[in-house]
Specification:
The chain has 247 residues and is an alpha/beta fold. It is built from nine helices and nine strands.
């Protein structure tokens, strides 16, 4: 995967900032694309909070690694960033906009958030559900309401970019572990995110797939976009040239 390929324009046209219809639009933060401000979160029934008074920033146009052992709250932080859960205290911001229940009640604002911020889950099988690889990659752009020719362009670009062209007709459940991870990544990239988040992305990868992932993510950042990885693999973070944040 070359840097030139990664620079293909998979992004939607510029749109309004993330904001609810009845709010004043918030200007994007030019220094940080993400801010956690005193964030705490506890899962129901848990003996201890997953996050306690956590604050950090993710600089725009760089790679950042959330480091820490299992149970340190790395995956939880990514879920809060996407609005899949909400903090019990503190504030999560994307481009200066608070990500909370009020934002997600606005369908247009929620859709725009999901276009700007993409997440590849630790287990790729949780986000693969279509009959074929090609349909998986096309699904997101179709849900965005893009024209058929744009959906086709993005699908073909991502099939080629992630070495999935020959697997386009295969059912995702028949893919290998590394192929499933590549397919899940292709599905997210087809949406043209400005911020790409990955949860423990090196789990189960062989040496070749590991190197391909590093090359892609470095090229993605070089194209001016932002990467946030949750990982316990410091060698991977160093290979990305990522700024490290320990939870």
């Amino acid at each position: 995967m070359s840097q030139d390929e990664t620079k293909r324009d998979l992004s939607p046209s510029p749109d309004e900032p993330l904001s609810c219809a009845d709010e004043t639009p918030v200007a994007p933060d030019q220094g940080a694309i993400v801010r956690f401000e005193g964030v705490s979160f506890a899962y129901a029934g848990a003996a201890a909070p997953a996050l306690r008074d956590v604050s950090f920033e993710v600089p725009r146009g760089q790679a950042t690694a959330l480091m820490g052992p299992n149970g340190s709250g790395k995956s939880t932080a990514l879920r809060l960033l996407l609005g899949l859960d909400h903090p019990s205290a503190g504030t999560v911001r994307v481009d200066g906009q608070v990500v909370d229940a009020a934002l997600l009640r606005d369908p247009a604002a929620a859709k725009r958030l999901r276009q700007r911020v993409g997440l590849v889950f630790q287990d790729p099988e949780t986000q693969l559900f279509c009959p074929s690889v090609e349909q998986e990659i096309a699904f997101g752009p179709q849900q965005m309401g893009l024209p058929a020719d744009e959906v086709a362009r993005r699908t073909e670009d991502c099939l080629a970019l992630f070495g999935l062209t020959e697997l386009r007709g295969r059912a995702p459940w028949r893919l290998s572990g590394g192929e499933k991870r590549r397919c899940a990544l292709a599905c997210v990239v087809s949406l043209g995110p400005e911020l790409l988040c990955l949860d423990e992305p090196t789990n189960g990868l062989d040496e070749g797939s590991y190197g391909q992932l590093v090359s892609f993510l470095r090229a993605f950042v070089a194209s001016g976009k932002t990467v946030l990885v949750a990982t316990h693999d410091r060698a991977f973070a160093q290979a990305l040239g990522a700024r490290e944040l320990r939870l």
